[in-house]
Amino acid sequence: MKIYPTSHLPGRKVLLNNGKEYLYFSGTDYLGMGHHKGFLTYLKEGNSIYGTHFGSSRNNSLRLEIYEETETALAKFSGAPAALTTSSGMWAGQLLMKELPGIIASDLQHTNSHTSNIRYYYAPRVHPALWAAEFSPETSGWEDWANNTIQTIQESHSDCIHIICSDSIGSPFVERFDFSVFNKLPFHRRIYLIVDDSHGLGVLGENGGGILRTLSSIQQVKLIVSSSLNKALGIPGGVILGDFDSITSIRKSPFFSGASPSPPAYMYALNKLLESNTYPIVHQQLLDNMAYISEKLTETGLFVSTSTYPVFCSMNSKLFDFLEENGIMASCFSYPQPTDPPITRIVISAIHQKEDLDRLAEVCMKF
C-alpha cells in the first residue's frame, strides 16, 4: 500500500508534503466539522474556559458539569434515555462489553431471576469495538446471520440470555442492514441488542440523530448503542446510549472511573453545536450533496452504495490509482485486519461543492 504523507488537515482538498493537491473524498468527517467555523469558535471558547484537558477521573469529588450537560444534550439528540461519554468510540464499545455481565446481573436481581447461560451473537464484520472474549468471526451474510440468530433464540431455553452485537451500517464496505427482522424475536426472553453506530451517528436518522430511534421500535430487546463521536460529529470521544439503569451501572465501573475523559473544551463545543442545532443544518447539506451526486456515480456501474448514505465502495483497486492520477484522493487499504482485501472507498462530505462532485463524476465516468 502506497502512503501519502501530509502535514495539513484534509477538507474539500488535501495538500500533500510533496506539494501535490488533490480533491479529497476519503476519511469519516462526513459533516465536514473539521473546518466548520462555528465549531472552531466554540472550541476556542471552550479552551479559554477549561484549558486543554481535564486531568482527573469523572468520578472524582470535583465534577465538571459540562460533561453531564453535554450527555443530556446527546441523549436528546439521539433519542436515548441517557448517555455517557468516553475518551473514544473504541473505548465506549469495549467498556460497554466489559460491563454487560454486571448490567445483566443487575437486571436479573431486579426481577429475582437467574441464569447460567449467556450466549453472544456477533454479526458479520462487526467492529472490534464490540469484540468480547467470546468473539468468533461470522462468515455468512448479515441477513442469513440475523435469521439464524432469531431461530436459535426461538428454540433456546427460556432462562438463556442472548446478546446480539452488530454495526448499524457496514464499514468499510458499505451495507445497509434491515434490523426490522428482529421484530420476529420472541417475547419473554432476555435479549440485549448492542449496536455500534460510529458510522451512523450524525449521518443516519432524522437530523443525523443516528439509528437508536429506529431500533427503539423493537420491543423484544434491551437496546444499548455505542458510538464514536470523532467521525460525523467531529469530537474526539465516544458515547454509550441506553436506559438510565444501564448507563448508571457503567458510570460506577472502575474501568470508567479509571479512564481519562474527552477534553472538556470539546464537550463544551459539542454542547454548543447541539444547542444551536448546527448538526441538522450540516446534515441537510450532506443530504443535498448526496442527492446531487448519487445518480451520477450509480450510472457508472462501478460502486456498491446504499440510499442517502455518503459512501461508495469498489473492490477494483485500479480505480483508486486512476482517481489519484486525475487529482482525486480516495482511500484503498485493508481494514480492520491487514489480511482483509483492500476496498476503494469514496466518501462524500457536507462541505464538498458541486464543482468537486462534478469532477468526481467526470473522472469515474472516464474510468
Secondary structure elements and pairings:
Blueprint: E1 13-15, E2 21-24, H1 37-50, H2 65-78, E3 82-86, H3 89-110, E4 118-122, H4 142-154, E5 161-167, E6 190-196, H5 212-215, E7 222-228, E8 238-242, H6 244-251, H7 254-257, H8 264-275, H9 278-298, E9 311-314, H10 317-325, E10 328-329, E11 331-333, E12 343-347, H11 354-366
Parallel strand pairs: 2-10, 4-5, 5-6, 6-7
Antiparallel strand pairs: 1-2, 3-8, 7-8, 9-12, 11-12
Helix pairs in contact: 1-8, 2-8, 3-6, 9-11
Proportion of residues in extended strands: 15-25%
Task: Report how far apart the termini are.
Answer: 21 Å
What's the CATH first level of the largest domain? Alpha Beta
What do we call the CATH topology of the largest domain?
Answer: Aspartate Aminotransferase, domain 2
Extended strand count: 12
The largest beta-sheet arranges its strands as 3-8-7-6-5-4
Structural class: alpha/beta
Helix content: 25-40%
Number of domains: 2
User: Please, what is the average pLDDT?
Assistant: 94
How many whole angstroms does the radius of gyration measure?
Answer: 21 Å
